[in-house]
Amino acid sequence: MKLLATRKASLPTLFAFALVAHSGWSLEALAANKTDYDGKWIAEINCARNVVNDAEKFSFKIRLNVKNGSVDAKRSVKDQNEVTNETWSGTLTSDSVRISAAATRGKAHWNYSFNGKMLDRETASLPGQLTDQNNKKLRDCSIVLDLDEPAAGQQKTARVPTEVEVKKDQSAAPANAQPRPPTAAANIPVQPQAQPQAQPPV
């Protein structure tokens, strides 16, 4: 009886090892999955016009910290004697990406939410929305994630040029082509681009 109990208890363990062996995974790879996307990420958020009051669209950037697959960041912006506070959270895994934020400014409360999947190890583009404190949708939004600094011990992967980029390089002028002389337009100062709004007009 004792031998039979021992065999029954070991079946789940044997099944787990068999699954790993059959799939080609390693225990190290399974354990490392949580940290695959660890590091500092630049997130660019873009939101369309408010569907309720037609307030202007807006965009901004924020740096997100990812550790053990969990997103963590805080952002405070002062504008017109009011302060907007945001707390960001979420998860980045190979299966899914979920990012959200709770924001407050005075008595106003709103939330961001984004869901999707990674495009590759270093980029993601997710659809989402901005809702009020009653979970009513106010804006369609999107977020683009770009890995800025990988966590210690990890390296950014070499980017493979797309087929369009390769064809463009092949059709470029030969290396011995003479450079064109600068035109008068080259001396015209470039006008600075308008900065994104510091805080959303909810």
What portion of residues is helical?
A: 10-25%
Rg calculated over all Cα atoms: 24 Å
Number of DSSP strand runs: 8
Helix-strand category: alpha+beta
Q: Could you give the order of strands across the largest sheet?
A: 1-2-3-4-5-6-7-8
Order of helices and strands: HHEEEEEEEEH
User: What's the helix count?
Assistant: 3
Biggest pleated-sheet summary: 8 strands, antiparallel, barrel
Strand content: 35-45%
Which regions have little confidence, pLDDT < 50, spanning 5+ residues? Answer: 2-9, 11-32, 158-162, 181-196
End-to-end Cα distance, whole Å, is 68 Å
Q: Which assembly state applies to the chains in this document?
A: single chain
Query: How would you describe the shape?
Result: globular
Mean pLDDT: 76
Describe this structure in words.
It is built from three helices and eight strands, in the order H-H-E-E-E-E-E-E-E-E-H. It has 202 residues and is an alpha+beta fold. The chain has an eight-stranded antiparallel barrel. Strand 7 and strand 8 (137-150) form a beta hairpin. It is globular.
List keywords for this structure.
single chain; 202 residues; alpha+beta; 8 strands; 18% helix; globular
List the helices and strands and how they pair.
Elements: H1 2-23, H2 27-32, E1 39-47, E2 58-67, E3 70-79, E4 82-92, E5 97-105, E6 108-116, E7 123-132, E8 137-150, H3 163-170
Antiparallel strand pairs: 1-2, 1-8, 2-3, 3-4, 4-5, 5-6, 6-7, 7-8
Task: Summarize this entry quickly.
This protein has 202 residues and is an alpha+beta fold. The chain has helices at 2-23, 27-32, 163-170; strands at 39-47, 58-67, 70-79, 82-92, 97-105, 108-116, 123-132, 137-150.
